[in-house]
């Protein structure tokens, strides 16, 4: 009703997107500030403010990387299985709010929830719903080609890497369809080709996929992220065992 009163044709979603849409404007603002400083100040004066200029340049670069991550993370909303059964998603959120009601006085303290329901996962043990917001920080999205050895088929894919898991999806026209995931405790990687990596669960041949990247550098970036996930899990497990 309020939307009709203020003649807002775009709705609440457009309002929620405004902070994200402002990010490129901040980047342009920083770039303009740097440009004007360099244009208006004499060479003799630049030396006295070089530290400040360096800070502005670093801020611009960090904001640029942050914008890239935000844009990549937005693609998660295109995963079809994140939207199946919306009533169940709301029910899940309600249960979590009730579970913490004794600890917090306001439901605003409820954890963020984005439920992925991988009911078609080839592995029955991975068909339970998972909260993507509990997978740690979002790291990177890769657009790749995947050859699935279990199903003997190749498809264009988007792979999402979090701190504690990797999810791969098939690009199907206007949306993404979930195809599988690897937990931090099981993921393995094998490099054999300049622009290809092989991912698997625990050992070669189990849930193995061949990932073809656009070039060698992209394959290296993918390998670096996966190896970091494996390394961090090993360190955390070692610390956990030492405390037993």
TrEMBL record:
The record's keywords, sorted A to Z, are:
Guanine-nucleotide releasing factor
Q: Which domain of life is it from?
A: Eukaryota
- Gene3D superfamilies listed in its UniProt record: Dbl homology (DH) domain
Q: Does the keyword Signal apply?
A: no
Q: Which GO terms describe its cellular component?
A: cytoplasm
Any single GO molecular-function term of the entry would be: guanyl-nucleotide exchange factor activity
Name the residues that span the membrane: none
DH domain ranges (all copies): 1-73
PROSITE patterns recorded = DH_2
- One Pfam family name is RhoGEF
The record, for SUPFAM superfamilies, names: DBL homology domain (DH-domain)
Q: Write the protein's name.
A: DH domain-containing protein
The source organism is: Anopheles maculatus
């Amino acid at each position: 009703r309020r939307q009709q009163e203020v003649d807002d044709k775009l709705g609440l979603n457009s309002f929620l997107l405004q902070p994200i849409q402002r990010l490129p404007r901040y980047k342009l603002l920083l770039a303009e500030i740097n440009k004007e400083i360099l244009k208006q100040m004499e060479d003799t004066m630049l030396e006295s403010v070089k530290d400040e200029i360096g800070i502005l340049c670093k801020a611009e670069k960090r904001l640029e990387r942050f914008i890239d991550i935000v844009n990549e993370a937005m693609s998660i909303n295109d995963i079809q299985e994140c939207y199946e059964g919306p009533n169940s998603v709301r029910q899940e959120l309600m249960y979590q709010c009730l579970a913490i009601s004794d600890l917090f006085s306001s439901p605003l303290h409820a954890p963020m929830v984005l439920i992925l329901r991988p009911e078609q996962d080839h592995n029955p043990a991975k068909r339970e719903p998972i909260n993507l917001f509990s997978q740690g920080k979002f790291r990177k999205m890769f657009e790749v080609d995947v050859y699935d050895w279990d199903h003997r088929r190749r498809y264009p894919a988007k792979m999402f890497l979090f701190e504690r898991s990797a999810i791969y999806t098939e690009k199907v026209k206007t949306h993404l369809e979930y195809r599988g995931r690897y937990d931090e405790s099981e993921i393995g990687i094998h490099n054999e080709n300049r622009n290809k990596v092989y991912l698997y669960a625990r050992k070669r041949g189990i849930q193995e996929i061949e990932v073809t990247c656009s070039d060698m550098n992209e394959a290296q970036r993918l390998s670096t992220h996966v190896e970091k996930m494996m390394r961090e899990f090993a360190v955390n497990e070692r610390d956990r065992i030492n405390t037993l």
